[in-house]
């Protein structure tokens, strides 16, 4: 796992790399086919080998017989399951992962957890995300020429909502969950499914802008809009369940369990200053991945950016500490808080630029017309300037 020692000191070589990678921005996103070792492919490979295949099937039957415990509890695994796990040692199944946007995601995650049960024999590492670790560094990309169409005096949450509306894909996905989650027709499972679809499929700048929009401290209307982004009245459980019970429900579902472990991996605070075990961008992605699961977090009020799970630790008995720890990994997590704050600063800087005077929208228009396209290097260097500035402001 790449853990940069100090993200603030960006070596020049990395800058150069980013410049070069920006030139390749027309490349399609890596798809599941290009994922290094996805669990569905690994399982296919395993099926060709009789020993591996038999061991996997055996282990699969173990998964259903071993009930999923709370993380603090010991996993009781029958001896023959341990043996089956041993046979998978050399298989590529041991290192396989899944992709957040892949087609058969749940099937892939099920394979991961079948094998991960084996991993847990001996060295149970709770915070090993089933998701591929590769972060595709792409420049912040949105059609900024559209900024001119926005009312200059609207709050930033409204502006980001309008940017989503102006983008066909974002608009379609947002309408879909808006409809499923609307008061009169609210069906929670459908609402949650559509919410997940939005955060999986809408482009990251759009979904992050919508959810992590900055509000002026006194602007309650803006804060309310932000808190309502995920349609909390339908998406969140009515009445606050116990947080440990919520986690039990989550862990019994391969998707929710994966998103939770992803969150624990990437939003793990290393100190009180907001340093994360990995990177802020990974933490935000993991945080947003939980929206639409049983453990959907949200802003707690209209006046600040504190977030929390929709649950309580009342009635946790002798598991009170464990419950509070879970609760605080959302509500008092310096890594998550700083990741959210940094993204909001970035979003407000975006709107404090004077795009009217910038040459950027002109360049963008020129780029769309091949006849006017300048020399490739000249164009890409100019074009790079803005995304690069936006990149750097993140650190
Ligand atoms: C795994 O590979 C090693 C060396 O490649 C070999 O010695 C060992 O027998 C293999 N184990 C299994 C269970 O296939
Ligand atoms: C945010 O507001 C809520 C409700 O008013 C409050 O309980 C919480 O402590 C506030 N968070 C911060 C960091 O001030």
Helix and strand layout, with pairings?
Elements: H1 12-23, H2 39-48, H3 50-65, H4 79-87, H5 105-119, H6 156-165, H7 168-180, H8 188-201, H9 204-211, H10 220-227, H11 232-235, H12 243-251, H13 254-266, H14 280-289, E1 297-299, E2 307-309, H15 320-331, H16 334-352, H17 360-368, H18 376-392
Helix pairs in contact: 1-18, 2-3, 3-4, 3-5, 4-5, 6-9, 7-8, 13-14, 14-16, 17-18
Bound molecules: 2-acetamido-2-deoxy-beta-D-glucopyranose (NAG) (2 copies).
One 2-acetamido-2-deoxy-beta-D-glucopyranose (NAG) is lined by residues 300-301, 303-304, 306.
The SS-based structural class is: mainly alpha
Helix content: 40-55%
Overall outline: globular
Strand content: under 5%
What number is the mean pLDDT?
Answer: 78
- Figure out the total of helices: 18
Most strands sheet: 2 strands, antiparallel
Tell me which ligands are bound.
2-acetamido-2-deoxy-beta-D-glucopyranose
- What is the gyration radius calculated from CA atoms? 23 Å
- Secondary-structure element order, as H and E? HHHHHHHHHHHHHHEEHHHH
Runs in which pLDDT lies below 50 for 5 or more consecutive residues are: 1-33, 69-73, 121-125, 356-395
- How many DSSP E strands? 2
Strand order of the largest sheet: 1-2
Straight-line N-to-C gap: 20 Å
Domain GDNF/GAS1: 39-120, 157-234, 243-335
GO molecular function: transmembrane signaling receptor activity
Subcellular location: Cell membrane
Family: Belongs to the GDNFR family.
């Amino acid at each position: 796992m790449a853990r940069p020692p100090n993200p603030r000191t960006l070596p020049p070589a990395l800058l150069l790399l980013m410049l070069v990678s920006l030139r390749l921005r027309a490349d399609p996103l890596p798809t599941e086919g290009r994922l290094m070792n996805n669990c569905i492919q690994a399982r296919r490979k395993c099926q060709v080998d009789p020993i591996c295949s038999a061991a996997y099937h055996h282990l699969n039957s173990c998964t259903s017989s071993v009930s999923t415990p709370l993380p603090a509890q010991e996993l009781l695994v029958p001896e023959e399951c341990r043996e089956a796990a041993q046979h998978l040692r050399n298989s590529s199944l041991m290192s396989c992962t899944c992709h957040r946007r892949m087609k058969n995601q749940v099937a892939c995650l099920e394979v991961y957890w079948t094998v991960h049960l084996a991993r847990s024999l001996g060295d149970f590492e709770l915070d090993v995300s089933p998701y591929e670790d590769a972060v595709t560094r792409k420049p912040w990309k949105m059609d900024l020429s559209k900024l001119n169409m926005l009312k200059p005096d609207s709050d930033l949450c409204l502006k980001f909502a309008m940017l989503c509306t102006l983008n066909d894909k974002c608009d379609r996905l947002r309408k879909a969950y808006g409809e499923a989650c609307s008061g009169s027709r609210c069906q929670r499972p459908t609402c949650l499914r559509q919410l997940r679809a939005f955060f999986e499929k809408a482009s990251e700048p759009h979904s992050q802008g919508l959810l992590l929009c900055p509000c002026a401290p006194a602007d309650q209307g803006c804060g309310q809009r932000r808190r309502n982004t995920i349609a909390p009245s339908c998406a969140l459980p009515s009445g606050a369940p116990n947080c440990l019970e919520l986690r039990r429900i989550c862990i019994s579902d391969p998707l929710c369990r994966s998103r939770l472990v992803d969150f624990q991996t990437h939003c793990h605070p290393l100190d009180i200053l907001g340093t994360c075990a990995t990177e802020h961008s990974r933490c935000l992605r993991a945080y947003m991945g939980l929206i639409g699961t049983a453990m959907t977090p949200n802003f707690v009020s209209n006046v600040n950016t504190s977030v929390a799970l929709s649950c309580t630790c009342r009635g946790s008995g002798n598991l009170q500490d464990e419950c509070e720890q879970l609760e605080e990994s959302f509500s008092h997590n310096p890594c998550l808080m700083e990741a959210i704050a940094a993204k909001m600063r970035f979003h407000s800087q975006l709107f404090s630029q004077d795009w009217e005077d910038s040459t950027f929208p002109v360049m963008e228009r020129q780029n769309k017309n091949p006849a006017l396209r300048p020399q490739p290097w000249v164009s890409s260097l100019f074009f790079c300037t803005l995304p690069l500035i936006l990149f750097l402001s993140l650190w």
